[in-house]
Amino acid sequence: MTTQARRQRERAERERLIITAARELAEAEGWEAVTTRRLAEAVEYSQPVLYSHFAGKEAIMAAVAVEGFAELATDMRTARERADDPLAAVAGAYLAFAERRPALYDAMFSRSLPLPFAAPETPDALQAGFQELLHVVRPIAGGDDEGQLAELLWSALHGLATLTRGGRLPRELHEARLALLLRRLTGSPTGSPHRGRSK
Amino acid sequence: MTTQARRQRERAERERLIITAARELAEAEGWEAVTTRRLAEAVEYSQPVLYSHFAGKEAIMAAVAVEGFAELATDMRTARERADDPLAAVAGAYLAFAERRPALYDAMFSRSLPLPFAAPETPDALQAGFQELLHVVRPIAGGDDEGQLAELLWSALHGLATLTRGGRLPRELHEARLALLLRRLTGSPTGSPHRGRSK
DNA sequence: GCAGAAATCTAGCAGCGCTAGGAACAGTAC
DNA sequence: GTACTGTTCCTAGCGCTGCTAGATTTCTGC
């Protein structure tokens, strides 16, 4: 009985080990460097062991992605609770996460993984993240649907994150673009461009 | 002399043949189905011929992507010229393109290809597309920087396109989200949600 | 018609994700 | 302590990938 419990625990630990190793390898050298052979070497087991835990490489990436969603949700939550402008804080936290953990962000969004979105079986971490967005757009929704506005904010942030990351947008104006997004989304007066300094 | 010219022409034709075959294969079965072997078979040459035209598979995808940028730019331009609400028309054209040619759109944005953006050597087709965006945001810029606003619009559209495509956003509300984006971007009164029907 | 050059193909390399089959290890019963 | 049983794990290998060296065919100019 107890031995069975121990084994189960060890199995779970090893599973975490695999996920962590995959994540670290991806963050260090990008996802194309994450091969089953290198991953097996990193956890000091042979390749087939990976397949006793996950259906395949995609499933491993999905597991890493779920971890990422949890971390992103936490980031946004802390940002929201500590700031007096929650919308700006959450949006900033989102973009900072994408910048800080590019490989992780890739796994979550760019690699089209078979993770269920907007469905009952959607991982909690994912729903939690969306809740944060919902929360901060509520005050600015006006007559509009809050869900749609949250989706829109998400889209804009995702677009900014990926285009910046792919070198499509010059990185220098990152903050200015974010400020502009917030100004336009909230519908605040467009009087002074940037803050203070006039064009 | 003439034979040399003919050869050069034939080479150019074959290069186009390769690009077209790659694009068709990708659109029919997705990029993971585009292997150098299948591509070689499609153009009825052996694999090494591909490498006498392109540095590698990535370069072929990049060539397909450039074609895509040209097509997108044309789409947006026609939309802008024919409509009386250019902003909505261009935005709609952008999303329609992403929906109609998912594989092409992938090559252009999701696969991180080594295409220079926002640089002197950026392909013309790419700059032309951005110009269209610049053009339609001009009337709504107010005191804001037009370039930044165009980048913002682009980001939002890109986010909508990719999140929808990846199943991250339910497709049903596509149009509603677009309408909401335009309303918020332009800063028009947020009185009635959707058109007509009240919540 | 023939030498030399250019174009093209055959064959193969190293690496990929994944898996079948056997070896090595535990825990159990006597 | 020893033989048995079931699990765990590894070795070896399959079919695929992008890519390339070297032989072979085809064409050009005389």
**Main beta sheet of chain A:** none
Q: Compute the average pLDDT of chain A.
A: 89
Helical residue percent band of chain A: over 70%
Report the structural category of chain A.
Answer: mainly alpha
Q: N-to-C SSE series of chain A?
A: HHHHHHHHH
What Rg of chain A is obtained from the alpha carbons, in whole angstroms? 20 Å
Shape of chain A: elongated
Largest interface: A-B, 42 and 42 residues
The unreliable regions of chain A are 191-199
Number of strands of chain A: 0
DSSP summary: helix tally of chain A = 9
User: What's the oligomerization state?
Assistant: homodimer
Strand content of chain A: under 5%
Kindly, what is the distance between the CA atoms of the first and last residues of chain A, rounded to a whole number of angstroms? 73 Å
Short description:
The structure is a homodimer of 199-residue chains. Chain A has 9 helices and no strands.
